[in-house]
Amino acid sequence: MTAGDERRRMVGTRISTLREQRGMSLSALAREAGIGKGSLSELEAGQRNPTLDTLYAVAGPLGVPLTALLGEETGVEGTSPHLAARLLHVEHHADGTTTEVFWLHVTPGGVRESPAHGPGVVEHILVASGHLVAGRVGEERSAGPGESIEWISDVSHTYRSDDGALAVLTIRSPSR
Fold first, then answer.
1. Which residues are in the HTH cro/C1-type domain (predicted)?
2. What are the DSSP E strand ranges found in the chain?
3. Of 38, 74, 106, 117, most Cβ neighbours within 10 A?
């Protein structure tokens, strides 16, 4: 079994376990996540390679941070068109909140739209190089090197860069 096969299997097991703990059927989670039931079944079986978009879509209805699905191993990566994220650190706070820290690479050109992450989830981006336009759909703001953007990510939000950008993203999720 390759490392990729093992990663897919572990992600699938995490999704299935969380879904069952919440008493959700496969159909209910697929509907709430906006993905096909067959696709979710393949994800849970470890037969499909999950994209960041799919993982975020599933994490929202489950009420968990992305790392609850990806795992908390430093260096784990997720990709989607126009964006790659590498996990740097996860901190679980005494009050039950979780802070995830990612290194982002936003490629020049396209727009990546991310689904809502759930009530009270806050994203904060500090741009290291390049220029980035990000935030809630219709409320995006721009930032250059050394500048930051913050928003509540309980609705769809986008990331865009015309020249490519590197940034540190923190996602703070409330306790559930």
1. 15-69
2. 77-80, 83-92, 98-106, 111-114, 122-130, 132-136, 141-143, 148-152, 157-160, 165-173
3. 106
